[in-house]
Amino acid sequence: MEYFLQQLINGVTLGSIYGLIAIGYTMVYGIIGMINFAHGDVFMVGSVTAFLVVLGIGLTGGSGLLLILVALVLVAVIAMIVAAAYNWTIERLAYKPLRGSFRLAPLISAIGMSIVLQEFVRVNQEGRPKPVQPIVTGGYEIMRRVTESGEFIVKLTNMQILIIVSTLILMAVFTVLIQKTSLGRAQRACEQDQKMAALLGIDVDRTISVTFIMGAALAAFAGLMFFLYYGVTDFFVGFLAGIKAFTAAVLGGIGSLPGAMLGGLVIGLIETMWSAYFTVEYKDVAAFTVLIIVLIFMPQGLLGKPEVEKV
Amino acid sequence: MTAHDVAAPKTQGYDWTAIIKDLLGTALVSLLIMVPMVAYKSVITQYSLVLISRWFEVFVILGLILATRLAMHLFVWNRAPSPIHASAKPAGPAKATLADRIGPWVFPALVAFAVALPFIFHFERRPIDLGIYILTYVMLAWGLNIVVGLAGLLDLGYVAFYAVGAYAYALLSTVYFPYWFGDGIVPWAFYITLPIAGLLAACWGVILGFPVLRLRGDYLAIVTLAFGEIIRLVLINWFSFTNGPQGIEVPKATFFGLPFKAGPGGFADFFGIQHDRIYYYMFLYYVILMLALLTYFVTNRLRRLPIGRAWEALREDEIACRSLGINTTNTKLTAFAIGAMFGGFAGCFFATRQGFVSPESFVFIESAIILAIVVLGGLGSQIGIVFAAIAIMGSFEMFRELTVFQDYLPEGTDPVHFRMLAVGLAMVLMMRFRPRGFVTRRQPTVFLKERKAVSGDLVKEGHG
Fold it and tell me: Which terminus of chain A is more solvent-facing, meaning fewer CB atoms within 10 Å of its CB: N or C?
């Protein structure tokens, strides 16, 4: 029971990160119907940028809690802006000119862009993983039980609280943005019918660009959290995290924002529970298998609308 | 595309406010992209992580970007829109051009060159090695071309079939054949395993193909990617079967039972010639050449069979296909199976050439490279693929030896790292500017009265 509770906490933390990345996939797919294959690498760019800024301002775990929080907000803002600039540029250079090209063109271009981002970061920052000392330390003991083999303590670390709380805040802000503002209305309109939206005076190109920027900002925040949680980042973290987040987006129903979050949580939990109760080595296999099963048996996902094929 | 633009006279003066605004915007975005990533490099020293600042490089690159952008504003984008008739695509059959006349001779010339290659280079080791390397990728790309270029199913896990072929040879020749038939079989293992590797890979192609039949383009791509990764992860983790990340040592191929070794009983001894290791590499070279040509001819014959025509019809429009009574299930499965089979052959060859297999050789990036070759070759054009393979794999080799730039690059940067960057950029630029590949002409397999070469521009999906 204690063990399960601990895994639940870990799984929700991981799931929050996946959910934040998944939103970028789901929004882009909803609006232009393509898989932004480079999105995982935008997450990586956010992560590496956050690492560079943390290193640059010399943030360590020794500072006061308030100072750390203020500094992290600063780091997050910088990482989000930089990742947004990347994703905006990618959309402009690699995807926008391909609208109306043949079906596979944007996906192939996105795969190329993914390679470009990875190698760009590798060339500039060396290939080796970058470790840092833990910055957000400490935590709370939730439960303690003494058994024959020793004590088992269920812990909720400050880092996990930070991830879960900030994810909730971001999600709330984001939902308001989509539901209540004119920008969100424009996005939903473009998602339903781009031609009609354009006829009604919505700047479709601008809306699509904004979608990429928003997705990138959330991914960059996830990148910061990922890097703080694991204490390490490199040029390759975007590949696996990207595929898992995509799985989350599909599982939740592609195009649906709450679905992306829900899917993220489910994938995070599956991965954690699989590592805890089965084999750690095959946790990625488990995630990929979920992806395949979901795509084949329920491509509309948990909260998505079934897609009707039209001629 | 500017190719059809006419050099029209400049219509009006430059709109300097707009240009300056645009340049400022470009500068802002470029700085955002470069400032953390290029301006500061994190280096792990013995005791700590330090940042090295490289502002000079940032400003050089920024200057270059702005200069290019300004030049584009002044000389390219300011042109008046070209008259409609100039940009209209020529409808109907293209006129006989130089390309038409030399077209039929390109492939025979390439084959003749490939056959003569060891003789042209005086039996040197290096060009033969490079030839083996490039031909392996030509074969893989031809195999993938069946799935992606002909049937229009984007497969991102092609390297899985390559892995199946390689591991089939590795495991059969080192473990199972000696166990079942005794050690005497080992010299012949390559010849026996080659078809088995192809068959196994084809089976895996069907196993993968069956569940993904219902999926559309993007989803199909992601599922195949996941499948490829699963195979690799299983190869890494199933230690008792595959020996995990350490890999397996594989016996070398023999010349129909004659090992390439010095002394009695060897290849040189049997033919009464001086022993030289180069014979082994020449043998490998001709084996892969034969395999690649086999792929080429089989694919070409298949394209003229009903199944090949069904593939191309499927690529153009699946719903139309179904309403015309084409069995899309069988069509997709055969495409997967036959594409995978050639991947398996290539994998078997790869194992014997390397003398060693490990999961490291079958990462996603390999699939991406093979896909890049197919894309650059023009999705469906077999000749195009040859040139694309030579361009990509040849440039890889060149990057390896590119010490010229060493002086200009920041310290500690290895030109080798730029090669994948170049491949990625090539894929993006290709989709942006020449989505039909460098070779856009297609020979139709069905025609009314006379054969006309069709430009790729006239085909719906950009390949035909």
Answer: C
CB interface of B with A, residues 124-153, below 8 Å: 148, 152
Give a yes or no: residue A106 inside a domain: yes
pLDDT of residue A266: 93
Residue B464 has what pLDDT? Answer: 36
Q: Which of B68, B222, B316, B418 to mutate to test the interface with A (most CBs of A within 10 A)?
A: B222
pLDDT of residue B7: 47
Q: Which of B37, B215, B432 sits opposite A98 (nearest CB)?
A: B432
What was the pLDDT predicted at A135?
85
What are the per-10-residue average pLDDT scores of chain A (311 residues)?
A: 87 94 90 89 94 87 83 94 95 88 84 92 84 83 77 85 93 90 90 89 92 94 93 89 90 86 93 88 87 83 68 49
On chain B, the residues whose CB falls within 8 A of the CB of A115 are 365, 368, 420-421, 423-424, 427
Residues A132, B418: C-beta atoms closer than 8 Å? no
How far apart CA B161 and CA B201 sit, in angstroms, is 5
Q: What is the DSSP letter of B348?
A: H
DSSP conformation letters of chain A: -HHHHHHHHHHHHHHHHHHHHHHHHHHHHHHH----TTHHHHHHHHHHHHHHHHHHHT--TTS-HHHHHHHHHHHHHHHHHHHHHHHHHHIIIIIGGGTTS-TTHHHHHHHHHHHHHHHHHHHHH-SS-EE---SS--EEEEEEEEETTEEEEEEEEHHHHHHHHHHHHHHHHHHHHHHHSHHHHHHHHHHH-HHHHHHTT--HHHHHHHHHHHHHHHHHHHHHHHHHHHSEE-TTHHHHHHHHHHHHHHHH-TT-HHHHHHHHHHHHHHHHHHHHHS-STTHHHHHHHHHHHHHHH-TTTTTPPPPPP--
The HSE-up count of residue A6 (CA atoms within 13 Å, CB side) is 15
Q: Does B233 sit within 8 Å of A104, measured CB to CB? A: no
Contact B122/A at CB under 8 A:
no
Give me the domain span that covers residue A68.
23-234
B61 touches chain A (CB under 8 A): no
Residue A196 and residue A51 in contact, taking contact as beta carbons nearer than 8 Å: no
ipTM score for this prediction: 0.86
Task: Count the domains in chain A.
Answer: 1
Instruction: Indicate which of B31, B34, B37 best probes the interface with A, i.e. most A CBs within 10 Å of its own CB.
Output: B37
The pLDDT score that the predictor gives to residue B404 is 62
pLDDT at residue B95, rounded to an integer: 54
In the prediction, which pLDDT does A14 show? 93
Percent helix, strand and coil across chain B, each to the nearest 5 = 70, 5, 30
